[in-house]
Structure formats: C-alpha cells, structure tokens
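Recap slide: Aspartate aminotransferase family protein, sequence and predicted structure.
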Amino acid sequence: MTSNDIPGAVIAGPALWPAQAHVPSVLGRQLVIDRGEGSFVHTTDGRRLYDGTAGLWHANVGHGRPELAQAAYDQMMRLETYHTFARFSNDRAMELAERLAGISPVPDPKIILNSGGSDAIDVACKLARRHWQREGREGKKTIISREFAYHGLHAFGTSIAGLDFNREGYGSASLVPETVRVPLHDADAVARTVAEVGAENIAAIITEPIQGTGGVNPPEDGYLEAVQRICRENDILLILDEVITGFGRVGSMFAAERYGVSPDLVTFAKGVTSGYAPLGGVFVSPRIWQAFYVDSPDTPVLRHGATYAGHATAAAVALRHLDILDDEKLVPRVAELETVLRTQLDGLAERVDAVADVRVGGFLGGVTLAEGLAADKVTDRLVDLGFISRPLRGGTLQISPPFITTDDEVVAFVAAIEQAVVDEANR
Ligand code: PMP
C-alpha cells in the first residue's frame, strides 16, 4: 500500500510529523515532554530527566518560570501584538530593540526582529546581498559558510548548510544559488576560496563562533580574527551566527566580545527568550542600515517583513527574560560553569578508551565517541539513567545544560555520560 518503491508497510503514527527524524526509528518510543521545572523535564510516561541540552540549546534560564508566564499574560491582556510594517509599530518591540541596542555586539545597531534563528539567517543573508546590490556591486552575491555549519533550515540556511544532508534533495547543489563551503578551522582555505571565487563575487562569510550542531567546535586560536581580516581586506561582510552563543552561553553576553571580533551582522534567537516565546533577529551595523535611513525620496526600501516581526508578546517575554539574566547574574555564572565543565571533562578522553575527544567553549561541551560506537545508543542509555544529551555530527554528545544548573548536577551529568559510554562500549 505504499505509494513509493520502498518495500514495507506504512506505519500509522501520531499526526505530528517528527522533525529531523528517521520516522520508523522513533515511532513508538518518542519522549513526549509535558512539564518542566528548572533543569529538569518530565515525560508523559512518568520519567524525570535532567535537561543536559537545555532543549535545543535554548532553555538557558530553565523551565517553568512563572515570571515569564506572567509577562506573557500581562502583555496579552493589553495587546497580543501589532505589526511593525510602514507607519505602524508596537511599544514592546520598540522597547526591546532599545534594550538590545544597549547590549549589542555591533556598535550603534538597528535591530530586525522575527520569529527564530532560521528567520534571522534568511534576513542576514538577504541583507548582505541587498547591501552590495544597493552599492551597485551586483556581482557580490556568494555566501561562504563552513563545513558542518548549521544555520537553520529556511531557504538560505538550507543552502549554506555545511552538513550536506541538510542541503540534499531540492534539485540542485543548494536551494539558493551561489553558496560555497570552506573547511572547518582553516583560515588559509578561506583566503584561497576568496581568491578563487573573487572578492567581486562574494557578499559575506558566515560562521557560528562556536559551531554547535556540527559537533561543538570552538574556534582555534586566531581563527575568527583571521576571517575578520580577510573580510576587511576584501570588502566582504562578516555575519556571526550567535543563535546558540548569544545571550550568555559563552560567559560573555555575545561570543563576538569573548573572541574580539566586530561582525557586520549578528543573528540571534534561542537565548533571547530562553524559548519562552519564539523570537529571533539580527543586529545590523551602521555600514548596512544607514543607506536605508537617508532623508531623501530616493532612499531604498528594504522589502522584508513578517506579520510577527516584533511580536509584542514575544518582546515582552524577552524584556522580562533579560531582567532575569541580569538579576540572577547568570552570564558570570556561565563562566563558572564553564570551569566546572572543563574540570569534569578533563582527562576523560585519556581515561576512557571509548571517548576519542572532548571540547569545551563557554558552557558548551562536546564528547566525541571512538569510532564504531553509536552516539544515539549512548544517548538512549543516558535517558535510562535520567539524563538528556543529543547526538551531534561525528558521533559527538551535546552538553549544554541551563545556566541555572548546579555544579553538582554538571558533575553528575558528566559521570552519567562516562557510565553510558562505558556501558555501550561493553555491550
Ligand atoms: N543557527 C544556529 C547556529 C543554530 O544552532 C540554529 C538552531 N539550532 C539555527 C541557526 C536555527 O534556529 P531556529 O531553529 O530557531 O530556526
């Protein structure tokens, strides 16, 4: 009864199509979360699990925060939202943008708001091309990204994906034409690629400061500065994708500060609300926005917008969430947690044969398993032990707990990872 050529029966399952899943492998064993408190979540079948990934790297202030529910309630009782097209705006979106401008990794920014990280990436890439088109340099369209990069899955994010499987199946090498990938850590390769493609054809280089889904890959010393230098020397825009790293995850508000780079565009999402409302956006530098703010009938219009751009309830939640980061001093706390995590992971690869490598950058860790060991089996074992991790590229386990976690919980999580790896290796 299948309508394609794969032998086998079609399995009936719940109406919700699981994201990023080999569907038959997950049906019947889905972990359905129905409640969260702090660093823990509960499943509908009665498990209580430590959220060692903060969901998809988003739940930084932890789950079940009444003050954020209250902020959403209060805003909805006044105004759910109003759009921000043309003459219209709403007070919460305006207020959030001012607040974000005050902590921006880009000096004197304008801020474009939308609904998440993939949205933000599409805006940043469109804006990079639009910038050069407006300057009369229409040739500058190519976007260079890194191997194993993840920049969401809208049209541009799909097209610049460094994880090839995310780009495949849409009829050409990339959905949006003129994208190029470079190796992960190699600044010389970036310079060579720029020379080959020609600076006159390149709009932007985009990079995650610490690559997340690609396996938690912090930048090698000097890498981001070198890429920035190449951008400056060749009149190429630098886009930093801080969807994971933004709002404290690396122990500074943004990774741009920690690594001393000054990008032209910075994308953010997740950590702006810790997931209490879908929100993302882009910090835009004056070099790009000023042309759209000139007092002249000839000033161009950026033809971009969305119904929920600057959603008032999402903005109200973000404002309250930024208070929490400040009031509870969570960003300096992340710096402490990074040290705890480093101490726990130190020597793990030497001690345990089944661990090939360990990396830490901010409060983000990656544990890469030795060849032959299946990361998804290890994460299944971890669930049995009461902990959530996630398999990333290259057999790597994700470590990114909420910022409100305790030192002891981090110690317990790393111990559980070690146990799960050893259990699986001995199976
Ligand atoms: N960029 C990076 C670096 C990400 O990690 C993600 C999401 N994991 C995205 C973009 C896309 O964000 P979203 O899932 O909110 O669309």
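The radius of gyration is 22 Å.
Residues 56, 116-118, 121, 150-152, 208, 212-213, 241, 243-244, 269, 280 surround 4'-deoxy-4'-aminopyridoxal-5'-phosphate (CB under 6 Å).
(End of recap.)
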